[in-house]
Amino acid sequence: MSEEKKLFKVTIDNITVDVEPGTTILNAARMIGGDVTPPAMCYYSKLKNSGGKCRTCLVEVAAGSTADPRPMPKLVASCRTTVMDGMIVKNITSDRVLDARAGITEFLLLNHPLDCPICDQAGECHLQDLSYEHGKEGTRFEFQKRIFKKHDLGEYIQLHMTRCILCYRCVFVADQLTEKRVHGVLDRGDHAEIATYISKSLDNDFIGNVIDVCPVGALTDKTFRFKNRVWFTKPVDAHRNCSKCCGEVQLWMRGDEVFRVTARKDEWGEVKDASDGRPGWICNECRFDKKDIKDWTIDGPSKINRHSVISQGHYVGVKKPTDFLPEVMGGRGPKLLMDIHKVSEVNRPEIELSKIEGPAHSDDFKGSK
Amino acid sequence: MIQFSEQKLAKVQEIIARYPQGKQKSALIPVLHLAQEEYGWLSAETMDYVASLLQIEPIEVYEVATFYSMFNLKPVGKFLFEVCQTGPCMISGSDDIVDYIKQRLGISVGETTPDGMFTLKTVECLGACGYAPMMQLGKHYKEHLTKERVDTIIEECRKNAGVLN
Amino acid sequence: MGVKLLLEKAHVEGIRHYDVYRREGGYRAVEKALKTMSPDAITEEVKKSGLRGRGGAGFPAGMKWSFLAKPEGVPRHLVCNADESEPGTFKDRYLMEFLPHLLIEGLIIASYALGSNATYIYIRGEYAWIPDILERAIAEAKANGWLGKNILGTGFDCEIYVQRGAGAYICGEETALIESLEGKRGNPRIKPPFPAVKGVWDRPTVVNNVETLAAVGPIINIGGEEYAKIGVGRSTGTKLISACGNINKPGVYEIDMTISVEEFIYSDEYCGGIKNGKKLKACIPGGSSVPILPANLLLKTAKGDTRLMNYESLADGGFATGSSMGSGGFIVLDEDQCVVKHTYTLARFYRHESCGQCSPCREGTGWMEKILKNIEMGKGKMSDIDLLWDIQRKIEGNTICPLGDAAAWPVAAAIRHFRDEFEWHINNPQECLTRNYGLAHYADPIHVPTTA
User: Fold this and answer.
1) How far apart are CA A139 and CA A146, in angstroms?
2) Could you say which of B20, B41, B67 is where a domain stops?
3) Would you call A107 and C356 a contact, using CB atoms and an 8 Å cutoff?
4) What is the predicted ipTM?
5) Chain A residues lying within 8 Å of B44, measured CB to CB
6) Where do transmembrane segments lie in this chain (chain C) (predicted)?
7) Domain termination residue (choose one: A105, A136, A160)
């Protein structure tokens, strides 16, 4: 019994949880889950030194600990503040927190384009979620938004700096997952930007993970961009034997077509550990080059939070209409008089709609047969 | 080709020796100053050279060089006028001085004269508030600026231009 | 004439050089400290003196020293913060330019007390000629046995290095300074851990302002208790004030924190009154980030007491009717100055100097600057004033480092005390381009309600 570690009791929004010493308030809140968990735009539990910058996870510490129950004068970043035994934290039960968080949301959106309908991240954007939850409907900012020049990061990754909220996660990915970092944060203040300074492509084996950690649409997958909206695609878990990474991924499919490959994410939107306990980061080959369903072994549909817009396309709970014809026809199936696929000029499965520039036209289907 | 002289390289080693073993990155800002003294500005090539001297990645140099306002990432004129315009200088008439320099040199803030002689920049507080209005010119401060004093400074620069070559 | 401890010898010809400095009694404090006192006894003496950090925050220096972690086998460092960049402040520059040995003396004693064998002076890059002065003084001190190996036969080794910054106000924040010293961008660190535990190169570190360290020598000479007798209350010793703006005699003055603000501005010993016979309109008494006060609240507190030049009196009334000693940058505005424009230049300054790491400061400072520019240029709306108030309120306290607060306070104070000037700008968009609002009633006596 003596080997058992002493746990700290921490109360967040009136819910008490026992956590190991050294746990941050945010991670304690994640153990409770639900609304009690502060939003985190820059913190990423899998990346060392991340967090503290976006300030969306600010919470009020109403009592520091049992030993010293004084409240902390300022709101603290829950992702970088460790709990003390007997600490009392207020998140959504604190008006100060909600007020500050609304302010932070406004600051983050100040120079962020409000064009979600044409952004590839829409539907899985953490800033979008944050603004739905904590943002105001109008904007008080009446000036030109900051824009950046397009910057080329090579054949796989698109950087759209105008959308960046400077969470630094992609910098940590390059630092911690690759042996050589070629991109970083340049300039300072409101002109700070993610860039390589002189055009360089990011081509390390694991650099594709910057796409998965980016909370907004600043870093996107060039092999997927504008091919489809994420909520029209169906995420399925799949794996393959990969010599470089864990090979456990999520395929974003439509029909039999693999539109996109990403790492598997947990309920906080972070890359999940693989089944053997290794970090779940995936390599570029799995991410960008394996777009054929034959490359993968399907494990089954991914579990998606029902609140997510992506759950619009999920498989779980779908009611299949019952085929009643055989029943009323005494067990005999309907007789197929004509297979439309065989005679139609229009419905041609070998033509890949996504490869057609602009809207599809009947001309696109003519002549090749 | 960017290459420090033997003397400069010795200076770099002397600077690196100020820090604990393996912490040679600490020498970055001093070495960038040395490079800028030598070449007037920091080109990507210069920064890559500094990275190789300190055995760090080029991006680590770019990140730092773009953060600090004193590093010129584009070529500047031989004489860089950096006029302070923050509160205390403003209430002491820095706006008039900036206007006068613009008129005298025929350039706007951020521009260089066609002969490559002068560049005018406005900067934030240089810590000479009691001696305002003022500007930085190279290594030194020119304080208590008046129109007459600006004239004298410009004349002196023109005279020194030959000597500095 | 008040007591002078730092600038006592400032006007002695050649005091910049070792021989003169030594002849005038220099390095006595080092001798006394290293030969007769233990490191802990020195820290104790500094604690007794009540010396408060002169960089702006006013944290007791001795206490800061006593927090320094001392794990076995891990080197510790003292870093001197000479990144003086707060608008209105130029006192450290004066000390380093004219009395470099005074600073070095303090550095040696403090290094001994803290166990720092390699001490760094981080100086702002724009002070480009001062490192030469300091390095020369360091070489002189070393040649005379005050630095190097086995100083005065005590077994204590110490080297002092000068490191130049390259233009970043944020590096005055101690963790940003440490990052910069490590050759990185000046992004402040998220605390904890504090530098006393994990500072430069993850080693325990103390960062002190130039003036704080320069005061260590005099404290050792006269003793902590004697030092504490100078001044009033918790404002002990002497303080350098750098006075600038519309005054007859701008410059650096040493005060003993017992004189009144009025005396400081109008007496010939100090600022010598307002330039050109104009009237005093407003003043920022402690560097650009502390609240601006209109003349009436500057000279007297809201209670009607005479305001004194010390930590407590300047802060009397809190931010509602008081200000702060800050870094001692004393900016005086006469009746012709425009508070809106002045506030705009400060907002521009903070936007320019924000490191961009955390969102409230990165985005909020730029927003405030844009709105203030509009108001200054006659394009403001009445709702802009409340908007500014709301923005500063949402920056303050929510950022990683105090730069966010420093950017928020000047805007808040300008609106708090000069709201009618902002309104005038908005209501008179044409007129405000050609003339200023003037003195108005800002110097009128404040009605102090008397209680029976």
Assistant:
1) 15
2) B67
3) no
4) 0.94
5) 197-198
6) none
7) A105
Look up the CATH number of the domain holding residue B155. Answer: 3.40.30.10
The CATH number given to whatever domain includes residue B50 is: 1.10.10.1590
Same-domain check for residues A202 and A235:
yes
Contact residues, chain A, for C367 at CB < 8 Å? 107, 110, 141, 143
Expressed as residue numbers, the domain containing A145 is 111-311
A-chain residues near C400 (CB < 8 A): 52-53, 55, 77
pLDDT, tens only, C314-338:
999 999 999 999 999 999 999 999 9
Chain C 99-118, residues with CB within 8 Å of chain B CB atoms: 118
Question: Which residue segment(s) compose the domain that B121 sits in?
Answer: 79-161
Q: Does A340 have pLDDT greater than 70?
A: no
A–C interface: beta-carbon pairs under 8 A: 86
pLDDT at A369: 45
> Is position A316 within any domain?
no
Chain C: residue nearest A140 by CA? C387
Q: Per the structure, how many domains does chain A have?
A: 3
Query: For A259, phi and psi rounded to 5 degrees?
Result: -85, -35
List, in order, residues 6 or more apart from C351 with CB less than 8 Å away. A189, A190, C365, C366, C368, C369, C407
Inside any domain, residue A3: no
Taking residues B111-140, what's their average pLDDT?
A: 94
**Which residue is associated with the tokens 């590093």?**
B71
Tell me if C114 sits within 8 A of C39, measured CB to CB: yes
In angstroms, the separation between the Cα of residue C348 and the nearest Cα of chain A is: 12
Contact C309, C364 (CB under 8 A): no
Confidence band of C205 (pLDDT split at 50, 70, 90): very high
How is C140-197 classified by DSSP, letter by letter? Answer: HHHHTTSSBSSGGGSS--BEEEEEE--S-GGGGSHHHHHHHHTTS--PPPPSSSPTTT
CA A22 to chain centre: 27
Q: Is the pLDDT of residue B8 over 50?
A: yes
Whether residues A146 and A199 fall in one domain: yes
Q: Looking at the complex, does the CB of residue A188 fall below 8 Å from at least one CB of chain B?
A: yes
- Same domain? A54 vs A162: no
- At A183-214, the pLDDT tens digits run 999 999 999 999 888 777 777 889 999 999 99
My answer on whether A126 and A100 are in the same domain is no
Give a yes or no: residue B73 inside a domain.
no
Q: Report the distance separating Cα C419 and Cα C339, nearest Å.
A: 10
Cβ A187–B59 below 8 Å, yes or no? no
**pLDDT exceeds 90 at position C405:** yes
Cβ-defined contact of A55 to C185 (cutoff 8 Å): no
| Interface membership of B59 toward A (CB under 8 Å) | yes
Give the closest residue to C408 by CA, choosing from C442, C356, C363, C357: C363
Are A287 and A342 found together in one domain?
Answer: no
| B28 Cβ under 8 Å from any chain C Cβ | yes
Distance from CA of A185 to the nearest CA of B (A): 6
> B20 preceded by cis ω (within 30°)?
no
pTM of the predicted structure, to 2 decimals: 0.90
Q: Is C352 on the interface with B (CB under 8 A)?
A: yes
B84 and B59, same domain (yes or no): no
Which chains reach chain B with 3 or more Cβ–Cβ distances below 8 angstroms? A, C
| Cα gap C309→C268, rounded to integer Å | 16
Residue A369 lies in a domain: no
Query: Is A186 part of the contact surface with chain B (CB cutoff 8 Å)?
Result: yes
Residues within 8 A of B (CB atoms), C 164-183 only: 164-169, 180-183
Give the pLDDT of residue A54: 95
